[in-house]
């Protein structure tokens, strides 16, 4: 029997807004608090509700694996209210966002100011295996995502699994499931807030779909 995985990114978060505004105004930003504690914005909550309506179309999931980060949990809770079903739900730490370590909460301008030369071309370097101090590379994310995927293939064949997580996790799922080289996955970014991606076995059916969010901003 074929494993069907639907992966969604959380709705717009407070850090998404802060970083977008910093990019627009070209200023350095360093967010306080833990990345895992960042919440959804009002728009993010609206997106999560729209996501729930989209997931309610067709066969609902019978197993949900959710990142323990607050923004992912909030997204699932709001989406679940629209489903009309009660699937098995597990918080899965291996589906957390890419850990930027001591660089967490800093936008590129802040990184350049604090670590001249070290943070140049950071995204490309993360795909290439670079780890920020006490943090992770995208290969590290791929390794933990692969563990989860192998467990699903071995123990949950035939189930409809929903993964509620982050852009880095969705991209690494594409790498792991489809066998796309990790350096090539960057071409599929950015993954939109509250977007939907679906794999049936090793075949991609949908990737980064946001049509259900018409009428709202998707980032």
From TrEMBL:
SUPFAM superfamilies: Phosphoglycerate mutase-like. InterPro entries: His_Pase_superF_clade-1 (IPR013078), His_PPase_superfam (IPR029033), PGM_Phosphatase (IPR050275). Gene3D superfamilies: Phosphoglycerate mutase-like. PANTHER family: BROAD-SPECIFICITY PHOSPHATASE YOR283W-RELATED (PTHR48100), HISTIDINE PHOSPHATASE FAMILY PROTEIN-RELATED (PTHR48100:SF1). This is Histidine phosphatase family protein. It comes from Streptosporangium amethystogenes subsp. fukuiense. The lineage of its organism: Bacteria, Bacillati, Actinomycetota, Actinomycetes, Streptosporangiales.
């Amino acid at each position: 029997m074929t494993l069907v995985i639907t992966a969604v990114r959380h709705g717009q978060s407070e850090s998404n807004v802060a970083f977008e505004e910093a990019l627009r105004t070209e200023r350095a930003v360093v967010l306080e608090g833990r990345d895992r504690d960042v919440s959804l914005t009002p728009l993010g909550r609206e997106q999560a509700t729209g996501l729930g309506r989209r997931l309610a179309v067709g066969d609902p999931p019978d197993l949900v694996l959710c990142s323990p980060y607050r923004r992912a949990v909030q997204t699932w809770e709001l989406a679940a209210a629209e489903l009309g079903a009660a699937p098995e739900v597990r918080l899965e730490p291996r589906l957390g966002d890419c850990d930027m370590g001591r660089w967490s909460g800093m936008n590129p301008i802040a990184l350049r100011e604090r670590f001249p030369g070290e943070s140049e071309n950071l995204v490309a370097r993360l795909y290439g295996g670079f780890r920020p101090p006490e943090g992770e590379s995208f290969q590290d994310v791929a390794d933990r995502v692969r563990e989860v995927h192998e467990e699903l293939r071995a123990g949950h064949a035939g189930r409809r699994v929903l993964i509620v997580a982050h852009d880095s996790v969705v991209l690494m799922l594409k790498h792991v499931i489809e066998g796309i080289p990790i350096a090539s996955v960057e071409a599929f970014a950015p993954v939109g807030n509250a977007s939907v991606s679906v794999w049936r076995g090793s075949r991609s059916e949908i990737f980064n779909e946001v049509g259900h969010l018409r009428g709202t901003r998707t980032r």
